[in-house]
Amino acid sequence: MALRLAERLRAPIFDDEERTRVAGLLHIVYILLIALLSTLLAARLLTTGPTRHWFMYPILILLAISLLAALRRGFIYSGGLIMIGTLIAYAAIGTLAAGGMRSSLLNILILALVFGAVLGRSRILIGLTVTSLLAVFAVAVLQSTIELPEPMPFNLAASTLATVAVVATSGLCLTLIILSLKQALRRTREQEHRAATMAEEAEHARKLTADVIASMAESVIILDSKATIVSTNVATTVLLGFSQEELVGAHIERVLVDGHHDMLRDGTSITSSIMTHRDRTYRMKSGEHIDVRFSRSILHDDNGKLRGIVCVATDIRRDKEIERNLRQAKELAEDASKAKSRFLANMSHELRTPLNAVIGYAELLMDEAEERGFAESVDDLGRIQSSAKHLLGLISDILDLSKVEAGKMELHLETFDVNDMLSSVLDSVRPMIRRKGLGIHVAIPEAIGFIHADQTKIRQVLINLLGNAVKFTESGEIRFAVRQGLRDGLRWIQFFVSDTGIGMTQSQISRLFEAFSQPNAAAARRHGGTGLGLALSRVFAEMMGGTITVRSALDRGSAFKVEIPYLDPTEITMSGLAHPEVVAKALGISDAESLLPYSHRRKNRESGLGQS
User: How many CB atoms sit inside 10 A of residue 362's CB?
Assistant: First the structure.
C-alpha cells in the first residue's frame, strides 16, 4: 500500500527535459496547494466555524487533485493555467464578497503569480501579472462605486495562519524554482561539456583521418556531388605532377581519362554506395597516361542524399610490366615445351626404327646360333635382345608422355574379351615372376565376357602395375584380382594388384604418380626404371574416366586398385558409335573429342565442328 502511494506521488517523467522539469515543479505545487487549502479549511472550521464561503476550499482541493491527475497524462501548461486562473478568479470574487480591498484574500494573487513563475515562461507570467493587476483595479473601482458586503469579523489566529501559509508556500515554491533552475543550469553545463568533448573527439578523428589519407601510398581524390575535386593527398600530387591547388576545384575528367562520364555530372546518376574496382587510366600533368587500379566509393548523408565520392587509385605500371613479362615467359615456356615434345616424338620415332631392327636381327641370329650349336652366342644374343626391348619400352613411354603433353593422346575404343586380354597380360609377366622365385595368386571370374573400352591402355596399365610389383618384391607373392560392378548407372571393372615388397611411406606415395619421379631412390638404382610407368598409368586411367589408387606401408607391401568404366557391347547402337558424345557420357568422360583420332579432331576444329 505504501509503495503504491509512493508511486502515485512520484513526479511524472517525459521525453522532453524542460517539460519534465516543469511537471516536477507543478507536481510539488499541486501537493502543496492541496496541503495549504486543507490547512486553511481546517483553520477556518476550527476558529470561525462554517462561514458563508467555506465550501470553496473543498472545491479548490478537488480541482487541485484533478489537475494532479491531468498532469500525469501530459496536460502540463494547460492544467497549470487552469489552476492559476481559478486562484485569481477566487481571489477577485472572494475579495468582493468579503469587504473589498480590506480582505486578506488578495494575498492569493501573490500566490497565483508565484505559481505562474513555476511554468517558467515569461509571457505567461507577464499575462498573469497584468490579469492580477486588472483584478485589483476592478475590485477597487467596484468598491468605490457600489456598496460591498461587510467583511467578516477579524480573527487574529485565522488571519495569521492564512498569511503564514501563503508566505510559506510562496517562499517554498520560489525556493523550488531556484533549485530547479540551478539543476537545469548544471545539466546544461554538463551537456555543454559533453558536447565540447564530443566536438574535440570529432576534430581529433577528423585530423587523424586526414593524416591517414595524407600518409597513404595510394592516390586519394575526394569529389563532391558534381564530381568536382574537393581534396587530394600527397600521393596524388606525386603521382600526377599536379599541385593540390591545380586540382582542387577542377572536374575529375582533368585526371581520369576514361570513365569520367559516369562520375555524376548532375549528381543523380549514382545511387549505390558499393565500392567498385577496375583498371582505369590517369592523365599526368605532362599529358602522359598511366594505368591505375581504380576504386570508387559513394558517400551519402543520413537522409540518403549523395554527398560525395572517394576515389582511390594505385599505380600498376610495374604490375602491368611484370604481367607482360610473365605472359612472354609463359609463351616462351609453352613454345619450349612444344619444341621438347616435338623433339621427343621425332627422336623416339627415329630411335624405335633401328631398335626394332636390332631386336629382329637378334632373334634371327639367336635362331641361327641355336641351329649351329653356338650355345654361348645364344646367351649373348639374348642379352642384346633383352636390352633392346628394355630400351624400346623406355622410348615408348617417353613417346606416350610427349603425346600426353602435346594433347595428342587419344582413346581407341574397341570390343574385346577381357579374359583373353588378362591371359596375355599374365603371360607377359610370368617369366619375370619365375626368375625371381615369387608366387602369384590370381582371382579372375571365369567368364567376364566382352566389354567396349580401350584395350591397349588397360593392358599397358596392368603390365606397368604387375611389373612394378615383381620388380620391388624380393620374396613372397603377387596377388591379382578382377571384379565387375554397377555404380551410379555406370558399369565398372576393377583390377587389384598387391605385393609383399618394400612398400612406401606416405611421403613417397605423394610423389608416386609424378613423371620421372622415383619414391625410393635406392631401390630405383637397384631395380632400374625411369618413373614414367605409374605417371602414364594414372593419365590413361583418367582419360578413360577411371581412377587409380594405392595403399602402402613401409616393408609391408603395396596394393593398387584401378577402376575403369566400360560399355556393354550388346547395348551399343550404331548411333551411339557414330556420336562420341553419347559414348563419352556413358563412360563418364568429360572430353568427347578424346574418343576421336587426332586427325579427325583437327579437321573438326578447322571446320568449326566437334565443339563439345
Answer: 20
Q: List the one residue out of 511, 540, 518 whose CA is nearest residue 404.
A: 540
Give residue for cell 577381357.
Answer: 418
Predicted model pTM: 0.43
Radius of gyration of the chain (CA): 54
Q: Reply yes or no on whether the pLDDT at 339 is more than 70.
A: yes
Residues forming a β-bridge with 498: 479, 559
Same fold, 216-315 and 409-572: no
What does CATH list as the number for 321-403?
1.10.287
Domain ranges of the chain: 2-189, 216-315, 321-403, 409-572
Give the Cα separation of 296 and 575 in Å (integer): 57
DSSP 431-495: HHHHHHT-EEEEE--TT--EEEE-HHHHHHHHHHHHHHHHHT-SSSEEEEEEEEEEETTEEEEEE
φ, ψ (nearest 5 deg) of residue 313: -135, 140
CA distances to 262, 501, 532 from 524, in Å: 66, 13, 12
Which pLDDT tens digit goes with each residue over 269-301? 444 445 567 888 888 888 888 888 888 888 888
| Fold for the domain defined by 216-315 | Beta-Lactamase (3.30.450)
Q: Which of 251, 208, 213, 257 is nearest to 232 (CA)?
A: 213
Residue 434: exposure state from Cβ atoms within 10 A (0-12, 13-18, ≥19): exposed
- Other CB atoms within a 10 A radius of the CB of residue 462 amount to 24
What are the residues whose beta carbons fall under 8 Å from the beta carbon of 223, sequence distance 6 or more? 229, 230, 252, 263, 264, 308, 309, 310, 311
Q: How far is C-alpha 600 from the geometric centre of its chain's CA atoms? A: 48
Q: Tell me the C-alpha distance between 563 and 585, whole Å.
A: 17
Query: Which residue's entry shows cell 615467359?
Result: 329
Q: How far is CA 371 from the centre of its chain?
A: 84
Of 172-176, 459-463, 488-492, 546-550, least confident by mean pLDDT is 172-176
Four-CA torsion 73, 78, 80, 84, nearest 10 degrees = -150
Please, what is the average pLDDT of the chain? 77
Classified by CATH at the fold level, domain 409-572 comes out as Heat Shock Protein 90 (3.30.565)
- Cα gap 47→35, rounded to integer Å: 18
Give how far Cα 51 sits from Cα of 43, 44, 58, 329, Å: 12, 8, 13, 118
Which residue has cell 480591498?
A: 101
Looking at beta carbons, which pairs linking 324-331 to residues 24 or more positions away fall under 8 Å? none
Alpha-carbon dihedral 368, 374, 380, 383, rounded to 10 degrees: 50
**156: number of Cβ within 10 Å:** 8
Residue/partner pairs of 306-310 with CB below 8 Å, 24 or more apart: 306/225, 306/264, 306/267, 306/268, 306/270, 306/271, 307/224, 307/225, 308/222, 308/223, 308/224, 308/225, 308/230, 309/222, 309/223, 309/227, 309/263, 309/264, 309/270, 310/220, 310/221, 310/222, 310/223
SS3 label, residue 608 = coil
Task: Tell me the C-alpha distance between 145 and 191, whole Å.
Answer: 58
